[in-house]
Amino acid sequence: MKKLKLAMLGAAVLGFTATTALADDYPQRPINMVIPYGAGGATDISARTIAEPLGNAVGKPLIMANVTGAGGATGSVAVQNAKGDGYTMLFARVGSHSVNPAMKATLPYTLDDFRFVTVYEINPVACAVRVDSGIDSMEDLVAKVNEGGVSYSSSGVGSLLHLAAVMVLKEFGVENPLEKATHIPQKGGGAAATAVLNGTAAFLCTNSSALASFVSNGQLKPILVTTAEPVAGFDAPTAADLGKPALHQLVGWTGIAGPDDLPDEVAKKWGDWMATATQDEKFRSTMEARGSIIELMNPEDANVFIQGQYNTFRKLVDELGMRIEG
Amino acid sequence: MSFVDSLLAGLSLVGNFESFLALAIGVAIGVIGGAIPGLSATMAVALTLPFTFTMQPITGILLLLGVYKGGIFGGSIPAILIKTPGTPASSATVLDGYPLAEKGQAGKALGMALWASCTADVISNLSLILFAGWLASFALSFGPPEFFTLILFSLTIIAGVSGESLLRGALSAMLGLLLATIGLDLVYGTNRFTFGDPNMMGGLNFIAVLIGLFAIPEILAMVWNPRSHEGTTRIIGKNWVTFSEYKKSFKSIVRGSFIGVFLGSIPGIGAAPSAFLSYSEARRTSKNKENFGKGEIEGVAAAEAGNNGVAGATLIPLLALGVPGDVITAIIIGAFMIHGLQPGPMMFVLNVDIIYGLFIGLIVSSVFLFLLGSVAIRGFKYVADIPRGVLFPAVLILCVYGVFAVNNNIFDVGVMFAMGWVGFAMLRYRIPAAPFLIAFILGPLLEDNFRQAMLMSGSSPAILFRGPITWFFWAVTAITVVAIVHTGIRATRKGLDQHKENEE
After folding, report:
1. pLDDT tens per residue across span A202-223
2. Would A72 disulfide with which of A96, A268, B47, B60, CB 3.0-4.6 Å?
């Protein structure tokens, strides 16, 4: 009996040291980083830009893998189902982790299936129209929407672009934006911009970085940015200028998440690594040149931020009956 | 800045060892990447992208363009040798390239593929340099209704690649259309035929379907009957493509190149439909129509001209409008962004040196493609000599690896094997695979553009006739369908007559 007790104690001690050792030694091997969107896109570029300084901070190689499909859902599911040992992590994005969960009842995951360790990049959202459209301001746009026949493009149902256009119209007093304006979904962000260029749709709202080249080339005209501060290169009023502070919630972001059973120690380590990585000069200058705002959040702040955005979006979706069931 | 100044500025930018080295390495990576089944040109470009982040902008972009062009040609090597398109764009090359290899003329087919690719590449690059502005504004007049009619016309290709039986071809196309509906609905965002499996939400992986349909059935057929090929020799011999053959196919090559240029300049179509369209046009106008699909060298030329004709032209929307022309240029645009370059009309003003540098690099890339392609053919053609018992297991391993690597997903490997059995069944019942593939590529485009057009017009079909471009495609579609029906009736009558004669 005494022996058994001793053995149990021993096992307990061993087990305990084993778990702490796991977190202490983490990481012992390379870490798989899943990018749920395709090569060359905003998430991919952001992930690969942070990969180098982050890899240096971690001290082990980061293996970057694009797992694409279904608006980021395929890659997200791959991490949701992975072991929570910190060796499979996800580059989460506004589309896959706040718009999609808010809009799609059929999504195979919820926000609770992930533990966010950081959000490191914020992308302002801007709305733009064609230069020769005759629309010069949000006021013009809203007037036209109320007349009817205005359409907007997006990179697909349940994308940030889809929700952003609806949210902006709603904030600017269009009572039922789903009926007043027509949504013309496209396959991908590039196609969404093309649709406005060739007159298929009248306007789109998306990350400023996706619009920057069209704006500086004089093809598209920005009429709104959703941040409080003006965005360089975008000669358009901010949401604060127009007295719509609720739109500040409408921003893009990139963060890193693991499965929901990720240990606290691992999450803490990621917080430290990210603090080091985001100090990298080259990372900052590359990201800022693309119009991103580097804003590092620790695990707690990141969760609060994402939950807040999700709740805002969810409220809007429920109010307008935009939720996709079945 | 005058034209000469711009040219000199561009020359000074690319006129260094590094740029040419990057271009050459790029073409080499592309040819090898394209030649490995499963590792498509798209994958090769995606894998190269991160390496360009630390390079000079022009060097990095030239490297990627080299991979792109090399990859589109490289895909034809396994298409001819082992009936496996290395990249989706070379699917049309299989139709005549593989029968040629079976006849012991792999060397000839590969040589023609290279010559056609390089010719098309030159034409495509020149079109980009000379007509970029004009073609870009043409591309911008393509909204959903225009797209819909263009795709509708392209579906008539199915008749051209159905082989002996139009009915079997149509059946194959139906199956392709059906499988293409899997995934998220574009307009409502609801799941279609996903059976609750998140892996199906993104639709069936294209590369997995492609490899499954072409490569796996051959392997299964060999397992089924390992000795069926004994007695037939597959020696390449000394036969190399002759200049007179090139001259004979020249018209098809030029036509294919221009089809490639037009389809390439319109964002969102890509190289595979262009190769098929070029092939079916070559067949339609050829004197020995019957030989197409059985080892006609002109078929290889047309298909390869059609896909390489796209490679320069997809840069037209990229440079002139700032929108990617296809999947591969969508990745390349990332390389522009990372270097703070903003492709679009202003780039011709602000970064004119880079534009001209790219033009010069592109012209040189055609030369590199020719040189490195010749070397690659010399190396790869011995693949045709490897005994099947050794070759096929190796191909199978490459296929599994390649399909897994596309999306790092084991589910795709399952899709590949499932499609392999479908392809095997089709092979045994003599149902052609090409119509399946065309329908699988074009089906979603047709549906999406139709529904977008209906959203635009509030469900009034009048929008499908809204301008000269739509009228043009409606007219050619009608003409083609009438021609198909006409040939069909004639063939049936001929068959009946023969039948009668036999009875008498």
Report:
1. 999 999 988 988 998 889 999 9
2. A96
CA–CA separation, A68 and A66 (whole Å): 6
Instruction: Write down the pLDDT at residue A19.
Output: 47
Fold: same for A31-122+251-320 and A125-248: yes
Residue B233 has pLDDT above 70, yes or no: no
Which tokens in the block code for residue B254? 């030029």
Q: Are B58 and B354 in contact (CB under 8 A)?
A: yes
Contacts of B53 in chain A (CB under 8 A): 48-49
> What per-residue confidence (pLDDT) applies to B381?
76
Of B140, B267, B452, nearest to A184 by CB-CB distance is B452
Residue ranges per domain, chain B? 3-466, 468-504
- Closest-CA residue of chain A to B48: A39
Q: What is the mean pLDDT of chain A?
A: 89
Domain spans, chain A: 31-122+251-320, 125-248
Which of A45, A109, A153, A194 has the most B C-beta neighbours within 10 Å, making it the best mutation to test the interface with B?
Answer: A194
Look at A194 and B331 and tell me if their CB atoms are within 8 Å: no
Nearest to A213 among B342, B407, B408 (CB): B342
User: Residue A264: which residues within 8 A CB-CB, separation 6 or more?
Assistant: none
Residues in chain B within 8 Å Cβ distance of A187? 186, 268, 448
| CATH architecture entry for A125-248 | 3-Layer(aba) Sandwich (3.40)
Instruction: Name the pTM for this structure.
Output: 0.87
Which are the contacts of B163, defined by CB distance < 8 A and separation ≥ 6?
B169, B293, B430, B432
Contacts of A219 in chain B (CB under 8 A): 321-322, 344-345
pLDDT single digits (tens) A73-99: 999 999 999 999 999 999 999 999 999
Per-residue pLDDT of B392-427, as tens digits, reads: 888 899 899 888 888 888 999 999 999 999 999 999
Q: Say how far apart CA A148 and CA B203 lie, in whole Å.
A: 35
Residue B448 in contact with residue B192, Cβ under 8 Å? Answer: no
User: Does A14 touch chain B if contact means CB atoms closer than 8 Å?
Assistant: no
CATH 3.30.430.20 is right for the domain spanning A31-122+251-320: no
The Cβ-side half-sphere exposure at B415, using a 13 Å CA radius, reads 22
- Complex prediction ipTM: 0.84
End-to-end CA distance of chain A: 58
A-to-B residue pairs, Cβ atoms closer than 8 angstroms: 159
Please report the pLDDT score of residue B229 as a whole number. Answer: 61
